[in-house]
Amino acid sequence: MDFWSFVSDRRQQLLTDTYQHASAVFQCMVVASAVGIGIGVLTYRNDRAGRLAIATTVTIMTVPSYALLGLLIPVLGLGVPPTVTALVLYALLPILRNAIVGLRGVDPTLVDAARGIGMSRTAQILKVELPLAWPSILTGIRVATQMLMGIAAVAAYASGPGLGNEIFNGISSLGSANALNQVLAGTLGIVVLALLFDFALVLIGRLTTSRGIRG
């Protein structure tokens, strides 16, 4: 069976795996973005706290995905819980680091001006600092999203959802008629999803960044 016939024959399963893969990455990115930006806001003014936060997420990134899933499975079991936990942990570094860099790069005179007109600390962060740091933060989110697209495939090792199941099933049955087609379908699906997500994030950046900041 040629590749396109294979895709047509397994269309429904491939669509289901694609949806699950996209859904897992999207939901994990939402959680990781909230956590990463939150930690960045709490630590960017303190050099020691910022270094500690970044060092912690760097340490997490050095753990191979197979090993991390292997450590999580005895605690969380198989399926969605270890997948979500691993993806969120891996996404934190680029988001947190770019949040800290972006917030530290905000012109202090603008913050002083906001304080001078009576803005509270929370208002300064929400209305001045985060909007100005947003391009840097969004870059971190884009990097993390591309990373998670590939890492999410490895989650099939823990019976996680997504296109990784096609890749793992194909690899485990190498030599059979459709093994290569399965690997190729899963791989191409992940590549297409990564491109679509990146395009969406670029569009979000254009819609949410003021022209003055974009230059």
Automatic annotation (TrEMBL):
<dbReference type="Pfam" id="PF00528">
    <property type="entry name" value="BPD_transp_1"/>
</dbReference>
<feature type="transmembrane region" description="Helical">
    <location>
        <begin position="179"/>
        <end position="204"/>
    </location>
</feature>
<dbReference type="InterPro" id="IPR000515">
    <property type="entry name" value="MetI-like"/>
</dbReference>
<feature type="transmembrane region" description="Helical">
    <location>
        <begin position="79"/>
        <end position="96"/>
    </location>
</feature>
<feature type="transmembrane region" description="Helical">
    <location>
        <begin position="52"/>
        <end position="73"/>
    </location>
</feature>
<protein>
    <submittedName>
        <fullName>ABC transporter permease</fullName>
    </submittedName>
</protein>
<comment type="similarity">
    <text>Belongs to the binding-protein-dependent transport system permease family.</text>
</comment>
<keyword id="KW-1133">Transmembrane helix</keyword>
<keyword id="KW-0813">Transport</keyword>
<dbReference type="InterPro" id="IPR035906">
    <property type="entry name" value="MetI-like_sf"/>
</dbReference>
<feature type="domain" description="ABC transmembrane type-1">
    <location>
        <begin position="18"/>
        <end position="201"/>
    </location>
</feature>
<keyword id="KW-0472">Membrane</keyword>
<feature type="transmembrane region" description="Helical">
    <location>
        <begin position="24"/>
        <end position="45"/>
    </location>
</feature>
<dbReference type="InterPro" id="IPR051204">
    <property type="entry name" value="ABC_transp_perm/SBD"/>
</dbReference>
<keyword id="KW-0812">Transmembrane</keyword>
<feature type="transmembrane region" description="Helical">
    <location>
        <begin position="137"/>
        <end position="159"/>
    </location>
</feature>
